[in-house]
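Notes from hallway chat w/ T.B., transcribed later so I don't forget. T.B. wanted the structure written out for a chain they're using in a teaching module, and asked if we could keep both sequence and structure tokens in one place. Agreed to drop them here.
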Amino acid sequence: MADRVYLDWNATTPLRPEARQALAAAWDMAGNPSSVHAEGRQARRLVEDARAAVAAAVSVRPQDVVFCSGGTEANAMALTPGLRCGSGWPVQRLLVSAIEHPSVMSGGRFPADAIASINVSSAGVVDLDHLRAVLADGPPALVSVMSANNETGAIQPVAEVAEIAHQAGGVVHVDAIQALGKIPIDIKAMQADLVTLSAHKIGGPKGVGALVLAEGVQGSEPLLRGGGQELGRRAGTENVAGIAAFGAAAGAATAQLADNADRLQTLRARFEKGLKQTADIIVFSESTPRLPNTTLFTVPGLKAETAVIGFDLGGIAVSSGSACSSGKVQPSHVLAAMGFGKDLAQGAVRISLGWSTSETDIDLALKAWRKLADALLRGRRNTA
């Protein structure tokens, strides 16, 4: 598959060389990181070095990072009734934006009748006035808003969300899984209380993630109980190799963030300029700040499943939006929340770029798109 072009980086990324090296080195270690002998201490050192690297990537203390099996588990850990900040009241309900990842939309450990949705604009940005209204209509809440949307790339005003939520006595969770490594993540600047991360979105391995808790957050109950691992916050022997690779990926992603973001934004502009040669093209969330690597687009009449297959046959790997639906191509709940009808919501195609994406890759993707667009136009003429 050497001739293929991979443009589905928001779904998952290849292993970074730094992560691959850390993973391979850790496989040869026999010790359990909870053991006190030399082998155990060696494994513990790898875990703690990785913890420091992940903490540095989001500007927190190492002891604030809790490793787990991935972003879905991290989100489930975060969405806990009873959380509070300092001397504040425990949260009794959950407010989630209408464009959240399914692992957040499911509500974690909150009962269904304690969960409410926050509206978004047609550009895919959280409606702050609606947030204020929903917060005023009940007891203290945990507010969950992602840092950037995985489908449109739209960057959310999390600092403003946090200020509003805190004024209402709430606690704030930010799913930063898609944003890490693409835009700067600073928990203090965001004023977030809990942040969730995932290794495989930044060049680490699948099956590793982290929950980050800001200082002063109380009431976080373990999702998995058993041993005293992760300072009693997540039971189970740590995935030493995966965690070590996560740390290596976090360090590399942070070091390369600025240069890579500029390069990706230039490539995205090249792609979108080529897209706009097609009549009636729609680029979702184009009017608002987005992740530098993400384009979600469609034209009226396009079927995402047909387009994804067409790109694939042309040697280009793309997505229909979120990749977390067991391989099914379904209408986007994100676009529905933004006010788009089913005809457009079921036709959106996502192109997401990464550190190895080249101008040649972009040009090949545009060539494949022009072929698909021409076929769509011919179909319209034949049915006219």
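Follow-up for T.B.: Residues 5-14+258-383 form a domain with the Aspartate Aminotransferase, domain 1 fold (CATH 3.90.1150.10). Might be a good example for the class.
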